[in-house]
């Protein structure tokens, strides 16, 4: 396993298993983080309109490509449609606006950020249009449960290729994971290091495994993602951590480690803002 390894999505597109996330990154910090990540050979960048940093990410992409001599095709770029922008024509218009902010002429992956009630079906129809027109190489969703995913598939001609959901040892969602695997939909983790409602780095079991392998807890968490066949996009704006997060390809967790981590599941979300957010409809409670 190495940094440039990929998984093959249902439509045959090769998607990197590892990349940089930029949620909560201020624009200037996002630009530098993206440039640093590209210089550190990160093959994938993940952002979203709702993050407010698409333009900064676009600047960072251009700076990183210039600094390394890499081509646009060497990088896999994902962004997401914001909740207020859902709807057929609005989706098409906002896709073009995201491309402009990112300074790109196509996307590798476009995701519906949340399953907004009454909107996601027509939004997905626009996603299918974009995909069929060749403007995006793959399409998918974020935060879709088994129920919403099943409903979407029934109403669609093209099945989502990716479902990006919160995933870490405290929230493993085994039923959803099994469902996605059976459906041929690739799972991707957001907040793989834990969110703002709890610190996985303080978990004694993870600290012990980290000491055993002489690694950081963050590296253990990211390695666990890869070994459980989940794509991971850790966020950092610190150059040292960006480089450290990618140094997870020269060791492996053993069966005992994996069993101990599996036992940590608490069905616990660690992002504080989800307490006031309806995960199933994508609306404020």
Automatic annotation (TrEMBL):
It comes from the Bacteria. Keywords: NADP, Oxidoreductase. The record marks 80 as: Lowers pKa of active site Tyr. GO terms for molecular function: oxidoreductase activity, acting on the CH-OH group of donors, NAD or NADP as acceptor. Belongs to the aldo/keto reductase family. It comes from Loigolactobacillus bifermentans DSM 20003. The active site is at 51 (proton donor). Gene3D superfamilies: NADP-dependent oxidoreductase domain. It holds the Pfam family Aldo_ket_red. This is Oxidoreductase. InterPro entries: AKR, Aldo/ket_reductase_CS, NAD(P)_OxRdtase_dom_sf, NADP_OxRdtase_dom.
